[in-house]
Design brief:
There is one protein chain. The protein is an alpha/beta fold. It has a single domain, classed as 4-Layer Sandwich (Metallo-beta-lactamase, Chain A), CATH 3.60.15.10. Helices cover 29% and strands 23% of the residues. It contains 7 helices and 14 strands. A hairpin with a 2-residue loop joins strand 1 and strand 2.
Length: 259
């Protein structure tokens, strides 16, 4: 295990990968993640998000350690959207593993990487990837970073991968790196969610976020979600405890502007 606590198995055969990204804002220092998740099925493994380009070597080493231990090949990649921190490593992975299939919004990748045209499979809400005993379902992206965003739900684990939907930073000086949200006792979740929303999801400054938070709660109830694994935040293992703090922070930028 690395100095930042990753990789970490957060559920059976679901591994959290990545490294911290240092950010400074208004005199404070925050750490955030551009996390990836490795899912081990009976027939193969799936990498969810390809991480920030700066983290590729760390991410690849973490992934290979697990795949070697499990004696299972990497067969699939799923990205929530085409922004660099989520999909910037696709070509690097394809160069190393030319047989893997890349799922998600891949609408223009055949032009960027024509040599891998047959590796790209477009997904819509309701489409599935079967890993053997584990299945990833493409679902509605309630909070989008770009128009073509997709979220994923892993069955039977009932874990939601919301991309930018639960984006927040953490405090390195309090030892939050590699911790689950509920383990980071001193984290002001509402504050760090609001900061991330203000900077990275700028449109949230100008819309009534109650529309989105209501739909988010509805999606979690409809799909019976038990856990949440965001790309830019610590994994949430107790939704009832942690969700209200995230929603409060998500409302923060708009409420501040409206006030």
């Amino acid at each position: 295990m690395s100095h930042n606590g990753l990789p970490r198995e957060i559920l059976e055969n679901v591994f959290w990968l990545g490294d911290c990204l240092l950010q400074r804002y208004k005199g404070k220092t925050y750490h955030s993640y551009n996390s990836s998740y490795l899912v081990i099925g009976r027939d193969g493994a799936l990498l969810l998000e390809t991480g920030h380009p700066k983290d590729f070597n760390v991410l690849h080493d973490q992934m290979m350690e697990i795949l070697y231990d499990k004696n299972i090949p990497l067969k699939y990649i799923f990205t929530t959207h085409q922004e660099t921190p989520h999909a910037g490593g696709i070509a690097r992975f394809l160069n190393l593993y030319p047989d893997i299939m890349v799922f998600g919004d891949v609408s223009d990748y055949h032009m960027a990487f024509p040599m891998f045209e047959n590796n790209f499979i477009s997904m819509e809400v309701g489409d599935k990837i079967d890993l053997g005993g584990i299945e990833l379902l493409a679902t509605e992206p309630v909070v989008r970073d770009i128009r073509t965003s997709l979220w994923g739900i892993l069955h039977p684990h009932k874990i939601l991968f919301p991309g930018d939907g639960f984006a927040y930073s953490h405090y390195h000086f309090d030892g939050h790196c590699g911790k689950l949200a509920e383990e980071a006792k001193t984290l002001d979740l509402s504050e760090v969610t609001a900061v991330f929303a203000e900077l990275a999801l700028f449109w949230t400054n100008f819309v009534d976020m109650s529309v989105y938070s209501d739909r988010l709660i509805q999606l979690i109830e409809e799909q019976k979600i038990k856990y949440i694994a965001p790309t830019h935040g610590l994994p949430i293992m107790d939704i009832e405890k942690t969700m209200p703090k995230v929603i409060e922070g998500l409302h923060g930028p708009y409420d501040k502007m409206a006030g």
